[in-house]
Amino acid sequence: MPKPTPAEIAARRGLSLPERTRSHLRDLGIWCDPNLSLERQRSTDSWLIRGKESGGAVVEAGRYVGFCKEDGDALSWLYRVRNFVPNGMHAVVLAPVSLVRLDLYRYETSYDLLITRHWPHREKDGDRPQLWNEILFSCRYGVIELELCGKDKKFRGGIAPRFLGRNGDELALPKPFQFSVFKMVEAVTDVGCRQPHLLQEPLLQSTDQELVPA
User: Fold this and answer.
1) DSSP structure string for 81-147
2) Does pTM top 0.70 for this prediction?
3) Residue 184 contacts by C-beta under 8 Å, 6 or more apart in sequence?
């Protein structure tokens, strides 16, 4: 089996941050888990993608992993996680067909962003599916010259980093995910984050017997 390329590793595991950076984030109390898994749901005899929305920020730095649909619309969480410790896991998602993962790291006013798509794939009927991955956007050193953790926090939720290519040309974010990136920036500047920023509470449908999640 050929050795996976750095791009294939990033598509599967999330941002390739140096160990020193990951260690510093742990020291700051920011816990982020970009790993995904395939889970078999016996009640529907189907395979679902499971992810954990997690992360947060201190003034100096932040990292956040969030999820949305392929068209950029919001996904509902399976359940929300509440913890007295901030900047950790906030919610769990199960997606039946595919999902998009956004992974954003901030140091002061510099941002690294990775957007990836994930879906179950079978080589042939009857095989256990494998999780396939695709990079939709990847760039380092984007900039927002604002103090979003301080005096400029009113702009959070409505601004995205400006990314430049090696030749100096501006790299446009994929249009379906612009709003999701706004929310990700909000998350990595939310000091002491205790809430999901992308996943949403499931809508409730009324039936004759009871209220059940949509």
Assistant:
1) ---SSSSSEEEEEEESS-EEEEEEEEETTEEEEEEEEEEEE-SSTTSPPEEEEEEEEEEEEEE--S-
2) yes
3) 64, 66, 102, 104, 113, 197, 198
CA gap 184, 44 in Å, rounded: 32
* Spatial separation of the C-alpha atoms in residues 65 and 151, rounded to whole Å: 25
Whether residue 105 contacts residue 62, with contact meaning beta carbons closer than 8 Å, is answered with yes
* 13-62 pLDDT tens trace: 999 999 999 999 999 999 999 999 999 999 988 999 999 999 999 999 99
Find out whether 150 and 120 touch, Cβ atoms under 8 Å.
Answer: no
As given in the structure block, the two tokens for residue 71 are: 């068209």
Cα 210 to chain centroid distance, Å, stands at 33
Which token pair is 15? 């941002």
Q: Are strands 170-171 and 37-41 parallel, antiparallel or unpaired?
A: unpaired
Give the domain ranges of the chain: 6-201
DSSP code per residue over 132-168: EEEEEEEEEEEE--S-TTTTTGGGTTS---BEE-TTS
Pairing of strands 110-121, 170-171: unpaired
